[in-house]
Write a structure and sequence with these properties.
Rossmann fold
């Protein structure tokens, strides 16, 4: 090993990683009824604001170098609560916005299944299928992974809070773990939960935490 070179991690990566703290937004009215909430723009409920405040308190002692958020109101409000604690601006990134659920926006699972039974059934197991007038999970993956690369390139060796939605966060975790699409269908992420992924200069990646809600208890 050359002088000054860092020791490898257990997974073999070298160098200081870019750490992404992945924060799902707080509660909205659509969250309460478990309705598809993609490009619609509800803001946080009172409980959602409390969740954002609790998260900000939890993260107040953490090192955070930058805050990046989806442009929707629910993520911006959640991000701002944490950014204020750190004296940081919030950078908006359209590429980490939630899935476009098209005609299913605002519907419950049962209502969407009744409206488009075959498409809905197939959509639950095929990432290439999109809701009517919406976006497939494959499309989401393409833009989210590109956004992740841009964030990592812009913040080498730093810690970035990424405030987004359930599907983009699952996509980022899937990307870091390098696993198949099954993760999208079987991983649960609570509102205002924290997950952590790290990306190393040599291209390696690890996940250090998933769906941490200790600050909400």
């Amino acid at each position: 090993m050359t002088a000054g070179a860092s020791k490898p991690t257990w997974q073999g990566q070298r160098g200081a990683p870019t750490r992404l703290i992945l924060l799902r937004h707080g509660q909205t009215a659509l969250s309460v009824d478990r309705r598809y909430s993609g490009r619609g723009n509800p803001d946080l409920t009172e409980l959602g604001r409390e969740q954002a405040a609790a998260t900000a308190k939890r993260l107040g002692t953490w090192t955070i170098d930058a805050v990046v958020s989806s442009p929707l109101a629910r993520t911006r409000s959640t991000a701002q609560a944490v950014a204020v604690e750190h004296g940081l601006p919030v950078t908006l990134d359209d590429e980490i916005i939630e899935t476009d659920f098209g005609a299913w926006e605002g519907l419950t699972f049962a209502e969407a299944a009744e409206r488009d039974p075959q498409v809905h059934r197939e959509w639950l197991g095929d990432t290439a299928i999109a809701p009517p007038d919406g976006e497939s999970f494959d499309d989401v993956e393409q833009r989210v992974v590109a956004a992740r690369q841009n964030i990592v390139d812009a913040h080498p060796g730093q810690t970035v809070l990424v405030v987004s939605h359930v599907t983009p966060i699952k996509t980022l975790l899937r990307d870091a773990l390098r696993v198949g699409p099954e993760l999208l269908y079987h991983l649960h992420l609570d509102l205002a939960s924290l997950s952590i992924a790290e990306y190393f200069p040599d291209g390696g990646s690890v996940v250090r935490g998933v769906n941490d809600t200790a600050h909400l208890r």
